[in-house]
């Protein structure tokens, strides 16, 4: 058999073009700047093929060809514009416009509407036919409204919900001219409310219920920025306008470039976390005094790289300590990783996950920890048929559409699971003598028994991965916060070094990774005389309520974050803040720069940052979807002097255990203060958990773990199994670096 030809040469409108294997005529046309109209096509899903706008003529063929799902053949000549094609497209538009209500004056989509644009493009000014109109009531689905009378059945929403998000929550109820979109297997919409269906809708059929009738598209200013809720670094645009004639500016909605990127509901609907506090000179002076007498500054990773850099300068100037356990443990994990891998940064990215055909996810309830990773996994599953192994003590129903194998292990045994994983993946690898000795000396019987994962489960995994060529290992916070995290990091580095797996380490907060590269952090000693910067302390400087000195929230600042992709991303000011900044505080200590962003080009080159000024950072996606935001960190070589240690005895977690884990759309105190996001702060456990804890559905309970006590309502959740309950943390102040499984005492509050 001859080798399959990788490139196909053909012509579009007389221009010679080349297609790679798997590309369609439409892909190639777009790459070459040749316009073919579409209505139902989105780059990130498989072609919907429902609109027929993209038809073209092909030499040697009668009739028209759908360019969105037809690959070219060698030597074919394609025509994209002709009288016959124009006639066809005009008729398609007339069908679309039949009885489409003329509500442009009040429709949210007006000025931003594909149907409007194409109706004008094809000069459809009159209609020769009509159809009997139907009564189609508006459906109110929580954050999303559906107006069926405006729907053109392009199917974009269904494709994106199924193929990219993974909710698979809507479908078409087929009935010819009566067809509508309906929730799948449910009366009401049962989904994670990412709002991606609103984003892709080309007309005003699917809209944001809170935005409805509030503003026209052309009245809004667009501010390109980066989402500040998790480490995925999703690009978004804040759309702002003054709230009344003399009112302040307000964010009206958030949009994304849906053609290539996706947003979760926290990014789309959780935008109003700005700080409305005013400038207070007295509080500023007290802050300066507090820092002068402080032994340390404790801060969270919900800050920009530039702020982290200023804190490092203050540390050097004042000789004080810096506490941030989340970033310190992440840095420690990555140092151990570097000691085996020989490099500073992990190799993988969200894009690598999307392109994978085999993935292992370990140490994270990924759907709620990092929706960006979840969407990448869904894309890999739906588009590449990826085999996805999910390793965790708890199943996750949000992931059931994409997981091909669940490996359930005992709480606390992550080091053993990583050793078994490395043992399976590296059985044929060319390891050095010490490394091979480590695997030869493993007491596999003991580890299988303690982790509760059987040897046959690894055989099944290896069998399912046998034909895979693009593999990725995704590691979450449960490994970074584990007391054996340093050895776990070395095992992860070994897998990356000696196999074809790329590695993605998922940071917990929006800028955990940036802070870990910029700051030299001390172990938090829980002492008094600590100034808290967006964290707890004896004097608190924060963008949250109740601060001793108010500062700007992340949607009110210019600066940069480092995302999960090791990409330095710019964020911009959506709303102004009149108060003080950390830069103002630094100036009081003779650390002088005009603006916070003057530090962007001074970020540490030895950590991979480039000496690029903030205003020189790009912030856009190309028409073909290439990410031109900021830059990727330079790779930094490190000394290879790490040795894998013998495994520790596996800990036992008995009794009632809680897992600190936020519900969908909640991440932290900032999402907690937004208006639209649901704020369900229940302790959720299985019926089995309720029996073990001697509590019942609806009880008020007191949960004690470590030195913390909180009260919550308990709810039996039939989707959960076992004796671990989910405890949200977005509404309490919690150390993001703690191992999230906690032995807990739970008592009913009478």
What is the architecture of the domain at 329-505 at the second tier of CATH? 3-Layer(aba) Sandwich
CATH class of the domain at 329-505: Alpha Beta
| Largest sheet: number of strands, sense, barrel closure | 5 strands, mixed
- pLDDT under 50 segments (min length 5)? none
CATH superfamily of the domain at 329-505: Dimethylsulfoxide Reductase, domain 2
H/I helix tally: 22
Strand content: 15-25%
Gyration radius, rounded: 27 Å
Shape: globular
What's the CATH topology name of the domain at 329-505?
Dimethylsulfoxide Reductase, domain 2
Q: Given the helix and strand composition, which structural class is it?
A: alpha/beta
Based on DSSP secondary structure assignment, what is the total number of beta strands? 35
Keywords: 2Fe-2S, 4Fe-4S, Iron, Iron-sulfur, Metal-binding, Quinone, Repeat
Domain 4Fe-4S His(Cys)3-ligated-type: 84-123
Domain 4Fe-4S ferredoxin-type: 180-211
InterPro entries: 2Fe-2S_ferredoxin-like_sf, 2Fe-2S_ferredoxin-type, 4Fe4S_Fe-S-bd, 4Fe4S_Fe_S_CS, Mopterin_OxRdtase_4Fe-4S_dom, NADH_UbQ_OxRdtase_75kDa_su_CS, NADH_UbQ_OxRdtase_ferredoxin, NADH_UbQ_OxRdtase_Gsu_4Fe4S-bd
